[in-house]
Amino acid sequence: xxxxxxxxxxxxxxxxxxxxxxxxxxxxxxxxxxxxxxxxxxxxxxxxxxxxxxxxxxxxxxxxxxxxxxxxxxxxxxxxxxxxxxxxxxxxxxxxxxxxxxxxxxxxxxxxxxxxxxxxxxxxxxxxxxxxxxxxxxxxxxxxxxxxxxxxxxxxxxxxxxxxxxxxxxxxxxxxxxxxxxxxxxxxxxxxxxxxxxxxxxxxxxxxxxxxxxxxxxxxxxxxxxxxxxxxxxxxxxxxxxxxxxxxxxxxxxxxxxxxxxxxxxxxxxxxxxxxxxxxxxxxxxxxxxxxxxxxxxxxxxxxxxxxxxxxxxxxxxxxxxxxxxxxxxxxxxxxxxxx
Length: 340
Fold this sequence. Notes:
By secondary structure, the chain is of the alpha+beta class. About 20% of the residues lie in helices and about 25% in strands. A hairpin with a 2-residue loop joins strand 8 (about 225-230) and strand 9. The longest helix is centred in the N-terminal third of the chain and has 55 residues, at about 20-75. It is elongated. The mean pLDDT is about 90.
């Protein structure tokens, strides 16, 4: 026989819960869910903030390093004789061979570097969507890796430079600048085959006010871009988003010893002066101001950023985080010929 206690416990196990117990349980569960949601939201927000900051730093460093590396390589003209060189500053957006600044008869070649002010960038048809606040720079050189003459594709319209290494070639021909394979008649060191050629490179670096700038996908993310001569066209490539401003200080060598004597943001404007010639730039200070793509949800301290001779930027009214990167690049191919 079952005792009274056993009967009572068995009866209770078959009973439901009261309304009060249900409401208390729901309230506790709701508190737990809300707490978990808050923790998840805060964690996601912190993750996005960290990701944005990491991307900002990575893009800023990349932009500064890329510009420094490109500046170090600019002015590389391979085996083209440097003696008696005459420098030209052709249209940065030129694509026709006869407009690129090369002429064997006058020993003319394009200036390795050409700074562009905000106003000058604004009229360049091949570097559109300029933000209107950041200057740019044009860099010119030859490809460091030579191309066999037999590999030249006439249909692509790519400009190459060929120099002779054969001591019996015509001395009056310092180099050949062309896009057709048949034009490259200078010979190699053994004088038994055509000498290799080097592709000519023109690149314009500038800050655009958007990364994706066309159609409904257009944004307002400032981006470092490159407009590059590709065959007979100019191709624009986004390089690093969040790059809000780039400032450049040019170190001019005025006494031909390979060392900068004066820094300027552009040419001096004095006719005949050594600091009024882009070919005399031997070093460049690079200032890169990078910001996060999205605004921060937390407090952002108001800061100003010193951009050298270009002055100070900020403080800003928005909530984008910013960081300034500074580096100095030496134009090895320009300064190296002058150093004693």
